[in-house]
Amino acid sequence: MSPPRFTVERLAWQDRALGELILPDGVLRATLGLGSGLTRRPGDPPGRLWALGDRGPNLKIGQAREDYGVTGLGRLLDMPGAKTLPMPQIGPSLSELQITGDRVEWLRTLPLRAASGAPMTGQPLPGGDAASMEPLFDMAGRPLGSDPNGADAEAVVALADGSFWVAEEYGPSLMKVSADGVIARRWTPAGLALPGAEDVLPAIAARRRLNRGFEGLAVSPDERRLHVGFQSAFEGDDGDGTRLWTLDAASGALLAEHIYPFDPPESFLRDVAAGPVGAGDLKIGELLCVGEDRLLVLERISHTSRIYAVHLSGPGRLEKRLILDSDEAPEIAPDLEGMIALSDRELLLVNDNDFGVEGVETRFFRVRFDAAVI
User: Fold this and answer.
1) Residue 199 lies in a domain
2) Which domain range does residue 103 map to?
3) Would the pTM count as exceeding 0.85?
4) Can you say whether residue 89 is alpha, beta or left, with left for phi > 0 and alpha for psi between -120 and 50 degrees?
5) 61 exposed, middle or buried (CB, 10 Å; 0-12, 13-18, 19+)?
6) Mean pLDDT confidence for 334-354
């Protein structure tokens, strides 16, 4: 079956400034991050949606030195995975948005908070390997360390009662979030003794690659099951697929595991044109539940993104059906990470602007198909 034909419309949006930092070779400006995930709940007004921002602005050490002249970080250049958090006061958040005609409008932002009221930060969790594999520093080169309230939020689903589930990469963990942004419950892999959390997820989740933890999240129509996708293959797994888990939404128990197969990396044409690619570059960007055991999966490298439909029937490797290939629509931005359905023939896509620290704008795309895709 051939994929449906589609048209793409970029919706107007103005990024919101969060702050700026004066550095030796320029001014670092941060804007609101909201491209890590999109969601909307049954009963929301038409055009209403929520968007997720991840851990906050961050820079690689070489980038901070070369682009902004922060030469005092030189001793960190040989430290694998090291990054800076130039504005550590900015952490993960949820933003409520409204589509009106051909525009997306900002309504409000809810910074995520721990049950104690403390803000969630972008720092790694204690007890795991993220703090050592990707150590974080301030712009003076001082270590920021770990934080039990840390999270690298990457996916979100909204529930009918006004609450949310948020998936994050550090643990990786799942967080039940109240309607006002407070973490009411947190599930981590077995063996990760995080204060205040329940280590009910399978221990094997901790085998995720650095920065490749939970990346996609969807909820079943009855809200009794969560579908969660790892961004890429585990360490030691074949790189041509990644794991999709179905979890009990009440207990975190693993109900089913499927393998989502990736396309060959050389088939992602815009990425191939930009430079060498390999199996380690393949990733999931988002999941969307469109019916009982039916998902849309956003698969990508960076420049090229594809949307596939899958049916979670039986264990093992999934079959998939192509819905959209962004190589056929060059106007669609790289780094897509958010996707929701506006109708059975319309999807809304958004890129991750990484808080604008490299000058990237948030871009929303309304995709209309000539046949139902959900």
Assistant:
1) yes
2) 6-56+87-369
3) yes
4) alpha
5) buried
6) 98
